[in-house]
Fold these 2 entries.
Entry 1:
Amino acid sequence: MPRTPRPLSGHPVMITGAASGIGRSLAQLLSAKGSPVAIADIDETGLKETAASLTGPVLTRVLDVRDAADQRTFADEVHDWLTAPLAAVFNNAGVGVASSVLDAVPEDDEWLRQINFDGVVNGTRAFLPILVEQDHGVIVNTSSVFGLLGMPNQSAYCAAKFAVRGFTDALRQELRGTGVSAVNVHPGGIRTNIARNARVHKDPEGRGRTHQQMAAEFEAATLTTPQKAAEIICRGVEHGKSRILVGPDAYLFDILARVAPTRYYSVIELLERLLRTRNTAGAQS
Ligand SMILES: NC(=O)c1ccc[n+]([C@@H]2O[C@H](COP(=O)([O-])OP(=O)(O)OC[C@H]3O[C@@H](n4cnc5c(N)ncnc54)[C@H](O)[C@@H]3O)[C@@H](O)[C@H]2O)c1
């Protein structure tokens, strides 16, 4: 089927998780292209910083994506604020947890699930009626490469991101034949605050690293900046893609999911070891 282009530049959008990382970069990119942006986040300070970096019209809202009723209230506020059809809803807010299944703290896994999955469902349910009424617009839900493959010490994160993928794929089929569509975004490693803000109680790999060291290692292994990620996501949406892979590592995960659906981790482990050796050698030279 030919893809229907979905122009974003100059058209209003809503973005959650806009106080940092990919969400902030999406807001900055689209605002610079003339889009009015409604931005939401639980972090008021970061959200104000994002708003201050934008030049065009902006609606700023402190919001906990876990709160379904407040997401609906926010959707009403966005509806009243719009002067043109809402082009895209980016359900982007997310958090991390690193733990083995054996050592999992149920409250942490619950916290993650409520933000990374329920938050996406709440945002979709709150904003979908606006798009359906317009018969136009796209729901863009952020999954991950960890929504393509299960990774050790990331069980809660993978479960939530697989759930986002399934939810969004199901929604896309429901919307067939309408002017509304649904997109899954699968970023690889992106240099953001996600690892620093993750809940970690001890090094799940048993290497004795502090949380800070683990976050620094994550950041050193990332291949994509949030600015580049935002460009790829926007281009993918505008080109009418249903599934957007972000970064070269995302393409590798996608291939591995197809060709080595049970043995993929042997390849990933090898690459991780090579990357670690390269970084250690780099730090020593
Ligand atoms: N960085 C990566 O490598 C990577 C890879 C794959 C997927 N992702 C996904 O991309 C999305 C954006 O993450 P990021 O990497 O930019 O991280 P980030 O930590 O830089 O930004 C996440 C934002 O979400 C906000 N947030 C957290 N809990 C919230 C809540 N309850 N309500 C509202 N906002 C909340 C945070 O305050 C923060 O501003 C997430 O869904 C994440 O899972 C990131």
Entry 2:
Amino acid sequence: MNHLFLHCRPGFEKECAAEITDLANDAGFFGYSKTRDNAAFVEFITHEPDGALQLIQQLPFRQMIFTRQWFAGPGRVTDLPVTDRLTPLLAVVESFPPAGALIVETPDTNDGKELGALGKKFAVPFTKALQTRKKLINRSAWQLHLVFLSGTEACVGVSPVANSSQWVMGIPRLRMPSSAPSRATLKLEEAWHHFVPAQEWDDRLALSMKAVDLGAAPGGWTWQLVKRGMFVDAIDNGPMDKALMDSGQVNHILADGFVYEPKKPVDWLVCDIVDKPARVAGMISRWVTKGWCREVVFNLKLPMKQRYAEVKKCEERLMAEMESAGIRATINFKQLYHDREEVTGHLRVLSPSRFGQ
Ligand SMILES: C[S@@+](CC[C@H](N)C(=O)[O-])C[C@H]1O[C@@H](n2cnc3c(N)ncnc32)[C@H](O)[C@@H]1O
């Protein structure tokens, strides 16, 4: 298997390709990527015959910013006969490890979605045939992916369950809460799903915690914090949603988020201010190095050009500033499904925390 299939947001193929090339090179794997603008996927082909299978086990999926989901396989299966697509695809799967599930995907584009019906229809006989051949079993560390790229072309491959997205195509199915004041609420919910393991939510997103929301109006992110039972200082010169204010858990402060300082440290800082990435990163760094917060979710609006380079620059700056302050922290970025021309950052202080000093 020398072929990695990487799903990404349409329009971010170059960033996805630059990132996988960098990460693969750092891990000692060389190859090249194939991209098409707005295709919503990237193909990375390794020089080593089994490079993709090794890479997908070695590179931590969580480290990848622009890849939504991925799988390793032998490459495109072309010239599928429309009367029998099953036989050639089963032949390809022959060399795969048995998988615990079959996931049928499409590129996240309008053209891709049109192939969804074909994938669904095909999944029924494909599943049966895979089960008969013991390629689909009850439990496995692997899952099998199938993507049709046209009626006659498809990619099949595998990904480790523990090192891939928990969501089909990396797209979470989150329901818009009817009482939330803005759709932006889904960004913070998705960020928590991505950055905070489910079993840690009760400790890290706990009742009565204190939070600051910079650029809070009308209150979609504050709504999520309140839903977890937190008390929130919402900083914005714009108006906050009335029903949310009636919860009694929100203190609306009319101020500039870049100059506001908390009276006491808080558990969470969240920031959805649209500004220059370097300015936002500098502000996050100040909050953490001053011990004003323990954990942060923030948005970085990407420039028109050099988008991958800009994120890496902010990441390196934050890492350098944490190191020189003697703070051990995890710093991660992800272009979430609900992010458009932006990425979401997450920083968590591990030690030593100056929190509360
Ligand atoms: C994308 S909106 C935030 C949406 C919010 N997270 C939600 O879920 O409803 C950005 C907000 O940042 C605010 N903003 C922009 N610059 C700001 C600043 N320097 N300080 C505080 N708020 C700012 C704007 O007034 C706007 O309400």
